[in-house]
Each structure stands twice: as structure tokens, then as C-alpha cells.
Amino acid sequence: MGHADSPARRSRRGGAAGPAAQTRVAEPGPAPETRRRRLRLPDPRRVRAPRDLPRYKNASRATRRRRRRRRRRLRVLLPRPVLPRRAEPPPQRGHAGRLRRRRGLSSLAEAVKMPAWTKEGLLSLLKRCSGGEHLRQIHAAVVTGGLSHKNSLLTQLLLALAAGGNMAYARRLFDGMHKPRAFLWSSLLRGYAKNSLNAEAAALFSQMRRRGPPPDEFTFPFFLRAAAAAAPAAHALLLRLAVPLNRVLATELAAAYARTDRARAAELVLPAAARDRVAWNALIAAYARSGRPDRALRLLRAMPVPPDAATMASALSACAALGLLRLGRTLHVTIAGSGLGSLALHNALLNMYAKCGSLAEARRLFDEMPARNVVSWSAMVAGCALNGDPGGALALAGSMKARGVEPNGVTHLAVLSACAHAGLVSLGRGYFRARIPRPGVEHYAGLVDLLARAGLVEEAYAVAASMAVAPDAAVWGALLAACVAYRRTAIGRAAADRALLLAPDCPSYRVLLSNLYSAAGRWREAESWRKKMRRSGLRKTAGFCAVEAAEGAVEVFYGGDWSHARAAEIRAKLEEVMALARAAGYSPSAEALHDVEGEEREVAAAAHCEKIALAFALLGGEVGEEVRLVKNLRTCPDCHAFARAVSLALGVDLVVRDKSRFHRFSRGSCSCADFW
Questions:
Q1: Residue by residue, what is the 3-state secondary structure of 1-37?
Q2: What angle do CA 111, 115, 118 make, to 5 degrees?
Q3: CA distance 604 to 164
Q4: Contact 611/547 with Cβ under 8 angstroms?
Q5: CA-CA distance, 162 to 204, in Å (whole number)?
Q6: pTM of the full structure
Q7: pLDDT tens, 119-159?
Q8: pLDDT reported for residue 131
Q9: Which residue has the higher pLDDT, 603 or 186?
Q10: Quick one: which of 337, 273, 328, 271 has its CA closest to 297?
Q11: Separation between Cα atoms, residue 49 and residue 80, nearest integer Å
Q12: Over pLDDT 70: what percentage of the chain?
């Protein structure tokens, strides 16, 4: 019995000591698979994204390899969960509710707070953008969303800023980019060219040549559009960089040559056989806007493809510049028959009729227009001012407000010009003070011209000296021209000094200063200034006079130019007309011909372009109901007196348009009442 097992020993061996122990042994144990510890998968919402796992610079290669395997395993086991969308808040009432329910970009300030902006989403917002504040918010979303490296997105943002005219913000955006590509430089250059910031465009192109990538075929067209005077240098750079001369670049280069009066170079760059309709339109528009409307109309006649709306607009601008009323009416009939009518073409027709002296036709077209904008109203106001109708100009400017159209700077300038050429000083001064809230330098120039033309030279000088903005050369030039007319040498010399300081390369102010000394009898000083101008290589603008021939062509005559095919007939007719004018009381003026006497004075006065054009118009078969002449400069007193005498001696009506207004001569009197 001594070696019998005791309960304690049986307990140590694992046996049962009693009924309880037997029961515990008899129970079946847990299944083997349930004994194993369960794998706890983490909550997907609390696991960091694989790209957010910590990385250490000093980890070994094996450690980095192990972490990469772990990240790949996590991507398979734990995909990013799709969270349920937040429920939309209930609709609100009042102003906040209206803002929330508004479609478009009204809730953009809330949208940019969301961190999930993509490139495609921001591009779609840019297409629907409507203002500069929205563009700033989109730029903030680009920066906070980490999309600043997307050049295509930044390019679209630059183009949107440039289209809205916000070039200062666009330049700040461009300066913050890291090594922008050539396309971004071209995009900013395009914005400068589109907003007529030519100096900024030239500076940006120079900076690109120094610090940026080489310009390509997308850069040069915008640079040539902004800096046409640099066309030869740009052409040489094109050849040096071996930039391919595609059709767009060739068109812009030829148009730049045309704008700087280099017709032969434009023909060599883009011959007629290689031009499409876009190229023809570009060249016609370039000649029409650069002071060579005769060449524009010559190209229009040689154009082998049918004209479109852009062609007609440029052709009407050329007709307006040359005063070709008959050709303008023909173009009007062509436009009406081809169905090219648009608001832009209606405005061009309105401008053509007004500048050709047919104010009645312009007013009838204005009244029949189905839609009008501020350009239409401004063209009609300017037409009334040009044709010597200040009352009509003021009435139209007053009715613009009633029709819901806000007058712009062009409208205000036309009203001031109408008052200046009619001598309505008090009316123009009151309009300037009451109707122009923020006058620009051009409006101050109009006010100075208004006062100076009326003989208030001291008041005009005081206005120019105390302007709210810095006066430019045009302000002092208007004052100088009035000082020449009223022989105010002291103030005129002061105005000339300021004008030459601001525009030293402008020959017109040197000519006016020489005329000022001539009017005061100081011949030596007048000749000294003309010699200085010749030594400096500056030449004054050549005066020309245009007349419309019977067959619809235009004839342009320059002073002293007898190279016309019918020069002998023109000279004989001019001698005949001069004799009739002398019999009617005309004698050549001595103001500009102080060193010429007797018959030599008459010969020199007969060389004026206006007299040569008038003699051509009076040749057999050239006279209709009235004779129409267009001069690019201000009519001189001698030609004005000659036209008045011819209308009295021959009994014909003469319509002469100079730089600033129309002169209608009939029976020895002029519509300007000798005040111009």
C-alpha cells in the first residue's frame, strides 16, 4: 500500500484525483485550428496609404527591399476604401441659399477647399471662368493641390489671364515658374501682343534671347505682331536659328513688312502665288492700318479668292481713309448681296460713310441697324464731330445713357473734338468736368486743344501744367500748334521744349517750331531748326491728297510730284484755274514762303498736293455733282483760300477732308467759317 499513488502524485503526473478530475480529463479539447491565434487585420480607414509610410535615408539596401515588398503586400491586402459621399445639406433660405443654388462658379470658394482637385477638373473650371477673382482661386487650387508642375495647366491659366487683360498677374505667375519652356514664353508674348503692350512684348523677347530657350516658329509670329519695326532683325534671326518658315510665320512676317511700308520685302517673303485667303487678308489689313490704303485697295482688286467679312472690313477702312464714297457704296451693295452682314461690318460701313462726308447715309444706316454697341454709338458721334455737327454729337452722347450704353473714352474724345472745331468753349469745358469722371491724357489733350484753338492760350498752358496725369507729347503739341496760329512765341517755345523732350524723334514738332519762328518773322531761327532736322535725318510726314477717279480707281498726288501720266494736262489745267482764282481775289500766302517773291511764290504755291489733285479732278469728265478731296495733313491757309476762290469762280462745290474735319466750299464760303 505504501507504493500506492497518492492524490498529489497523481496530480503531478496529470491524472485525475477525483470525480472532478475525471470529468476534466473526459472533456474533449479544442480543435487544432481554433487554438491558433487569429490574424487581426487593421481597419482600412486607419491604415496610412502606402506612399505615406516613413522612409529613412540611412536604411540599408536589404531594409529598403523589405519595405518595398511590404508596401506591395499592403496594396494587395488593403486597397483604398471607397468612403460614402457626404449627404448634401438641406437647402438654405435667404442670400446664402441663393448663392448656394447658383450654377457655375459661385461656389468655387468652397470647391477649392476639397483636396481632390485634378488637372482635368481645373481645366474644365478654366473653360467656365468669368473673371479675375475666379482665376486667382483656381491658381490657389493649383498651388495647394500640388499641380504647379503641370505646364499645360499653367499655360491655360496664362492664356485665360491674358484674355482678361490681367497681364501683371500673368507676369507674376510666369516669373514663379521653374525654367519655363518656349511654349510658355510664347503664351505670355501672345498676351502682350493681344493687349497692345508692344514695349513689354519686346522686352520679354529680349529676356528670352538672354535667359530662356531659343525662340521657335510659335514665338516669332506674336513678336512680329507686337514689333513690326523689328521685322528685318527678326527675319535675320529666323535664318540664323534655322527656324522653319511655315505659312503662319511667313504671313506674319510679310504683314510686318507691309506695316512698315516695305512692300518689296513683303512680296519676296510671301509671293502672290503662295498666299491663301488668310494671307491676303493680313496684307490688306496691314496696308490699310499703316497709312497705305491705296496699296490695300490694289491688293483687293488683285485678290484671286472671293473676299470674306475680314476682307470687306479692311477694304471699308481703306475707303474711309481715302474718302472713296463711290467705291464704298459698291462694297456696301456687295456685302448686302453676299449675306456677310454682321455687327462689325455694319460698324465699318457706318465709319466709312461718316468719314467720306455722307452723314445722312451714315445716320440712316445707324437708325436701321438691328443691334448697336458702344462702337456704333462712338462712330456716329465721331462722324458728327468730323462733319462739323457739334449739336448732333452732343445729342447722341446724351442719348447713349438713356439707351443703357455707357460712353467710353472714344466717345468723350469725339465730343471734345466737336466742341473744339466749333469754338464751343464753355460747352466743352462743362462736358469735361461733368461727364468724364476719370479723364485720361488724351482727354486732357482734347481740353487743351479746345482752349488753345479759341485763343485761350494761357489757360490751356495752365491746364497742361497742372494735369492730374503726366502730360505726353500730344498735349504740348496741341498747345504748340495753337501758338503758331496765334503767334505766341514764348509759350510756344516752352511747349516745344516739353514736346521735344518727350518725343525727340518726332519731326512734326520741329516743323511747328520752325513755323512758329517764321510766323514771328524770325527767319534765321526758323531756317536753323530746319537745318538741324535735315542733319539729324528726320523727315516730316509727306503730305498727299487723294481723289476718286471716274472709273472707281484712286489717284494720290504728293506735293511737287509731276510724275503722273497726264502731268502736262494737269499743269495746263492748274494754270487756267489759278488765273480764275486770282480774278476772284486769291493771292498766295506769304507765311510759309517768306523768302520767295512775285511769280516764284505762285509757282511754289502751285506745287501743293491739294492744288494738283483739284486740277486733276477738274479735267474733262472728272467732275460730278461735287469734287471730293482727302488730305492726310491739316489744310494750310493758302490752299483753304484757293479752294474758296475756286468754288466762287467756277461755281462748283468742293468737299475737302483734312486731318481733323471736313471743309465744304460753296460760292466762296466754307462750312468751317474760317475756324479750323
A1: CCCCCCHHHHHHCCCCCCHHHHHHHHCCCCCHHHHCC
A2: 85
A3: 55
A4: no
A5: 15
A6: 0.73
A7: 677 777 777 776 667 787 777 777 777 776 666 777 788 88
A8: 65
A9: 186
A10: 328
A11: 8
A12: 79
